Amino acid sequence: MTEPIIRLTNVFKRYDDTEILKGIDIELEQGKFYTLLGPSGCGKTTILRIIAGFTSATSGDVYFDGQRINDLPANQRKVNTVFQDYALFPHMNVHDNVAFGLRLQKKFSKADINQRVHEALTSVRLADYADREISELSGGQQQRVAIARAIVLKPRMLLLDEPLSALDAKLRRDMQYELRDLQQRLGITFLFVTHDQEEALAMSDEIFVMNAGHVLQSGTPVDIYDEPINHFVADFIGESNILTGTMIKDHEVEFVGKRFECADAGMRPNESVEVVLRPEDLDITTPENGKLTVTIESQLFRGDYHEIVAYDSDHNEWLIHSTNPATAGQQVGLTFEPYDIHVMRLHETEADFDARLERYDDEQAEVKRP
């Protein structure tokens, strides 16, 4: 098995009496795009800072290519960071901003610096902007200069701390494509921090979902979206209809007073559960052909779909994404397939959660094994 480029083992971080990270265990392989995803204050940026060497773990170990680097200074680590505010020097032009780190090392000739700066700017499609002042650039161009300044030093790994947060919606979407393309062209490991679920799903090879100092779940975007491990992940990643129910037996679950075939198994008979149905997996039909009957409350047009809110007879709210409009007050049927139903345990104890997380990790390791 290939040694991961980065491995964090049982990492804790405390500031005074506040525990920011609580036993983080993650591994990052060479050449992949990883994302730390979670709400503000969950510990994402702290992990980045520990890997970069800007702060130290209170306990636990950090390994780079199998070598423990807890005590290695930041300037000796083969990683570089793109900060949220880009940290560009306004008194320097584009070329000099990108060249700054090379000049600090005092081991490159002027010709070498010029060549490496040109290569870095070409990588981010700014080769013709070398003489521009920073104030003359758009937000997206400034972000690319910051990336060029990071990759000109040829790091093994690039850390990106919410670098798209200051951009408008369209530019942000464009930069998602550019960052993903750049990572694939360079072939280096990217670790990206964001609280934006859409960004994480669009760009990542693997996502680590965090909350309150824990990594709750890791996996591909499809794994995370289709098989959330608990209520927080299901609610945080995309939009969901989450209802309480009972797992009658393997492949049969009861919710909203009815029993449905499902794909899940392995729980106790008649165990209390939560049921997740994604809005895009619900199809509107006639009441007589539906598995459920709901009454339309309201709808909003979102461009490529209608976002519809409806209620059933038990006053459960249903969110539906449909390409067809609906009418307020209209009674309709909802239909879905067994594999659209995802079942999660309700009110897990900490021991239950740890055990299920271990089983999930074992399953993922089995999937990845050739």
UniProtKB/TrEMBL annotation:
GO terms for cellular component: ATP-binding cassette (ABC) transporter complex. It holds the Pfam family TOBE_2. GO terms for molecular function: ABC-type putrescine transporter activity; ATP binding; ATP hydrolysis activity. It catalyses: ATP + H2O + polyamine-[polyamine-binding protein]Side 1 = ADP + phosphate + polyamineSide 2 + [polyamine-binding protein]Side 1. Keywords: ATP-binding, Cell membrane, Membrane, Nucleotide-binding, Translocase, Transport. Residues 6-237 form the ABC transporter domain. InterPro entries: AAA+_ATPase, ABC_SmlMolc_Importer, ABC_transporter-like_ATP-bd, ABC_transporter-like_CS, Mo/tungstate-bd_C_term_dom, P-loop_NTPase, PotA-like, PotA_ATP-bd. Its EC number is 7.6.2.11. It is an enzyme of class 7 (translocase). CDD domains: ABC_PotA_N (cd03300). PANTHER family: SPERMIDINE/PUTRESCINE IMPORT ATP-BINDING PROTEIN POTA, SPERMIDINE_PUTRESCINE IMPORT ATP-BINDING PROTEIN POTA. Part of the ABC transporter complex PotABCD involved in spermidine/putrescine import. Responsible for energy coupling to the transport system. Belongs to the ABC transporter superfamily. Spermidine/putrescine importer (TC 3.A.1.11.1) family. The complex is composed of two ATP-binding proteins (PotA), two transmembrane proteins (PotB and PotC) and a solute-binding protein (PotD). This is Spermidine/putrescine import ATP-binding protein PotA.
